[in-house]
Amino acid sequence: MRLTIIALLSMAPAMSAQTLAATPVVTIGGAMANTNDELVKVTGARRLPDGRIVVAIGDPIEVRVYDHAGTFINRFGRKGGGPGEFRAPVSIRYADNDSIVTYTDGYNRFAIFAPSGRLIREYKEEAAPAPPALLHRALLRSPGGIVNGCARAVMMALPLVTPARLDEVFPDHSGHFWAHPLQDRTWRVYSQAAAFLGTITLPPGATVLDAGTGYLLAHQHDADDVEEVIEYRVNVPAGPARPPCATRRDTFSLVSADHGRAAEFKPVFREAMTANEVVFSNVAHYPGTADSLQLKLPAGTALGVIEASRTGYADVVLDTRSSLACVMRIGSGSFPWPEGVIFCGN
After folding, report:
1. CB neighbourhood size of 237 (10 A)
2. What is the DSSP letter of 3?
3. What is this structure's pTM?
4. What pLDDT is stored for residue 221 in this prediction?
5. Are 148 and 12 within one domain?
6. Higher pLDDT, 319 or 149
């Protein structure tokens, strides 16, 4: 699960003083792999509660299950449009139990399998993905547009002192929050209460696919440039097995009697807020005019900035064909509206 973020975090020198060990304990793939272990175009991985490891690959399109030691158990799924088949490579979504949930991007199709590969059910998510969570000077994105509430709780608690653009963040299943700066292999790990726990440095090119209490799964390449999925043991202090915050989705609330045209404004706010955060990451100040955002607005809409500072802003979207206007505030400011809530009226 990859999450991109533009943010401001406190990067005090003391953060580099504590190092958390990351020890490889299981390797799947690599140059010496046999047919069942050879990995080509890895698209996702997840560690089940009992230690089994699930890996999705794109060539051929299928899902494989390995035991806690990395020994191949079974495979399921293949390219196709029938039950339990995949129209395109899939990612692996988190589930509270040992169910394996796959998602086919571009088709909005979910499938739930037992570890044996037995198809439990399939369904299609027709609605557009939920908008990314916009936090305290931070824009979080994830596959499907869903970010769990643990990330929000940590980001809102972190002090914002020194601008630092981060490449990705990863809220794990225990509520810990991982942040990865651009062009840096070191991850910074925080507790649910935003306490700094330490740093973990991964090999060059490693991408985190799954993480939880005491482990992470990473996709990387060996010395021969062959793909691997490696399970690392990490000495991150244990958190709750499944904190309540991890079950909540962050999104933008819409408070309006008009859920038609007003709901259409959400993508406009989303794009405007993305542009706002990009500007802030460069100049440490939100833009005071919509002209500086250089957005392509849908026909019949106009965007305005009614407040902007170093600590927050408020945007308004107007329907030029009627008297409908919607506003939303992010950060601190003079307007009393709750942060991240869209209010509309005539």
Report:
1. 14
2. B
3. 0.69
4. 93
5. yes
6. 319
User: Which of 113, 156, 121 lies closest to 135, judged by CA?
Assistant: 156
- Distance, CA of 310 to CA of 247 (rounded, Å): 32
**153 and 242 in one domain?**
yes
pLDDT at 204: 84
Tell me the pairing of strands 42-47 and 53-58: antiparallel
pLDDT at 75 over 70: yes
Q: Which two tokens stand for residue 188?
A: 């910074």
CB contact at 8 A, 204 and 218: no
Single-letter amino acid, residue 70: G
- Our measurement of the distance from residue 308's CA atom to the centroid of its chain's CA atoms, rounded to an integer in Å, reads 27
Residues 257 and 224 in one domain: no
Cα 163 to Cα 10, 67, 78, 160, 259, distances in angstroms:
8, 43, 45, 8, 37
Q: Print the domain residue range for 154.
A: 5-22+130-247
**206 plus 322 within the same structural domain:** no
Residues 336 and 207 in one domain: no
pLDDT at 3: 38
